[in-house]
Task: structure prediction
Amino acid sequence: MLLKWFPIKAKNCQKRMLILVFALTMSLSYSACRADNRMPSSTSSKLPTEISTKQANSMKINIKVGDKAVTATLIDSKTTRDFVSLLPLTLTMNDLFGREKFGHLPRTISEEGKRTKTYEVGDIIYWSPGPDVAIYYRHDGEEIPDPGIITIGKIDAGVEAFNIPGSVNATVELIK
Result:
């Protein structure tokens, strides 16, 4: 069928077919590599310099709960910078709905971050009506009520340290 579209003389038939097969192989290889190396959709429109600048500006915190310590990476936002200005901080974090631990902040912080009504396990968020900071350790599929939450960071690993019954005391410190 392909040969009908491209009239090929017998002499050059093998050479032209080889070139065609090579071009097709290269095209498919490029497509396969491209599909495997895509960035997450949230950063796909950003230039590499924007991504690395944001990563370079990210801050790390240490959260100690009982005898366990977990680290988290904070995003760069005015809300986050205002939260960091409160550190070091010791909070009594109460359990809410068996999905999150929340603690009351000593004062309100900036509400200029992007609000959302969804969350992921490990998210550290600011709930402005509290004013509270919370860490999600389990997802229950429920949507967050108005006015929504402002994500300020994400637990790097060990979020299960918060999945214990009742209240916990947590000490939050900036890692320098």
Observations:
- DSSP finds four helices and nine strands in the chain.
- The beta strands are 59-65, 68-74, 89-96, 100-104, 115-116, 123-127, 132-136, 149-155, 168-175.
- The chain has a mean pLDDT of 79.
- Residues 13-36 form the longest helix (24 residues).
